[in-house]
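Closing statement on the S-adenosylmethionine sub-project.
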Amino acid sequence: MEENELILKEIKEYAINNHVPILQDVSLDLILLVLKLKRPNKILEIGTAIGYSAINFSKYLAGEDATILSIEKSEEMYHKAIQNIEKLNLSNKIKVEHADAVDYLGQLDENKCKYDVIFIDAAKGQYLVFLENAMRLIKKGGVIIADNVYFKGRVLSRI
Ligand SMILES: C[S@@+](CC[C@H](N)C(=O)[O-])C[C@H]1O[C@@H](n2cnc3c(N)ncnc32)[C@H](O)[C@@H]1O
């Protein structure tokens, strides 16, 4: 196994062993398929945790100046994400902002930067605020993805 793949495997194992809620394989595969087709230049992620999804997404960025901006509220998660991103030499591609996305998103100016893909994966209670901001910040033809809105099918099973 290549060294970077080994590091990514260790990050995933760390998440599982420490109950960090990273993307499930099936969701990750679906999002990676979207990214493969879309080949985004700018991705915005809300909810970094330890950087697992952002690191996976970075493989499908297109263009020399392509970047991911990811927002994380927890200080512990933020530091772990920075460590993991540095281990994989991806600091030039993935920028993590230590902030509450509810406040931070309001500071992002849609006239300065819009995103090809926006991935919402943080506190479910704030999804409407995140979505309103995502609609303002998404490029025309861009894709907004929200993880687990059906709570692993539990919401659907009540319909
Ligand atoms: C499901 S995890 C993210 C998993 C990550 N996207 C992955 O798949 O590797 C959700 C993260 O969002 C963070 N979070 C929750 N509310 C937030 C907020 N208002 N602003 C920023 N981050 C938040 C949590 O601390 C947690 O680390």
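The domain at 3-158 is CATH 3.40.50.150 (Rossmann fold). With this model delivered, the sub-project is considered complete and its resources will be redirected to Aim 3.
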